[in-house]
Amino acid sequence: MTDFTNKAHQGASPLARVTRWWRSQNTARQKQLMGRGGLTAACFGMVVVGMPILSDVNSDRQIAEEFRDRSIQLASAADAGETVRADQRASALLQHEWLRTVEYSLERNPENALDRFASMERDRAAISSLTEIEVPRRVDAENMLAQTQCLATAIYYEARSERTSGQLGVAEVIMNRVKDHRYPNTVCDVVYQGATRTTGCQFTFTCDGALNRKPYGSRWDKAQTIAAHVVMGLNEKKTGGATHYHATYVNPVWNSGLIKTEKIGVHIFYRFPRGSEWSVATARQNRRLAQRRTGMRAIAPAAAGAESKTKVLTTVATETDLNSASLSALKTAAPASGAGTQ
């Protein structure tokens, strides 16, 4: 009988064996095993959910540390001016009290050159000698502050929910546009280009009512810090010279005439074609516009009147004329982001 039972047990499926083993346990043992199994599953679930979060936190922390290291390097570099200021032929500007205060704080404690106490000493020296600052320099400083605020506003409304790398990418696009002859020459003019028109704004937050909600909180503080970082030219280029971007969940028609350079976070970045790339971009744009025209014909009602048909044909003709006349002009009119605020 025992041999028969063992043979039957050996021939049973794994599920049957587990079921038989489970039934052989008493109620207390079953409860204990169920508790352990539930705890194990919960721990596994926490690990699966928590690992991406921990990875993002560690990444942001690493970026913040790198940002601080670069800032400290910038502050430490001020100490290199000591030799110049010791030169008898040095200008009066290099003997300024503010510069001497910065140098003193660096010599006293280089590691804390950026803390609030060192900043307070430098601000106090600058305020006490404010009458010695030339008026044009003050105008330049005020203009730089205004440009930085415009950049911070764009970062906040376009990418405040993005990681630091994504926010730096948006800021880089704006600075690339400032350098590009096809766009205005200042940050504020680039950001608010077309904002006064009903349509055609380059950054959606400038014309969709988002500015009615003032920026605030830690995200606004971070946007201002990143803007200052980029305006001072301390950022490493990550977008490959991009002048356009859009969110990954949209596919605007203008991107077919540009060259994709990078994807950072939820944004895809593009630049203008160069050299032989224009022919490829033109062909791709033609195909995209043809597909769009085909779609417009498909949705036109079969029994539409002459007026409706005229409107459709006029729209198609306008798009064709734009494409044939100048692909560059079409791209210049394209917004930097067609995704809305974040």
Structural features:
342 residues, mainly alpha, 2 domains, three-stranded antiparallel beta sheet, 62% helix, flat, disordered C terminus
Q: What's the arrangement of secondary structure elements?
A:
Layout: H1 2-11, H2 14-24, H3 27-77, H4 82-86, H5 97-108, H6 116-128, H7 135-159, H8 164-179, H9 187-191, H10 217-231, E1 244-247, E2 259-264, E3 267-271, H11 277-299, H12 306-325, H13 327-333
Antiparallel strand pairs: 1-3, 2-3
Helix pairs in contact: 5-6, 7-8, 7-10, 8-10, 11-12
User: Count of helical segments?
Assistant: 13
Low-confidence stretches: 302-333, 338-342
Secondary-structure element series:
HHHHHHHHHHEEEHHH
User: Biggest sheet, open or closed, and with what strands and sense?
Assistant: 3 strands, antiparallel
The end-to-end span amounts to 73 Å
> Average pLDDT, to the nearest integer?
75
How much of the sequence lies in strands comes to: under 5%
Q: In total, how many domains does the architecture comprise?
A: 2
- The secondary structure category is mainly alpha
Measured on Cα atoms, how large is the radius of gyration? 31 Å
Strand arrangement within the widest β-sheet reads 1-3-2
Tally of DSSP β-strands: 3
The percentage helix is 55-70%
User: Could you say which overall geometry the principal axes of the C-alpha atoms support?
Assistant: flat
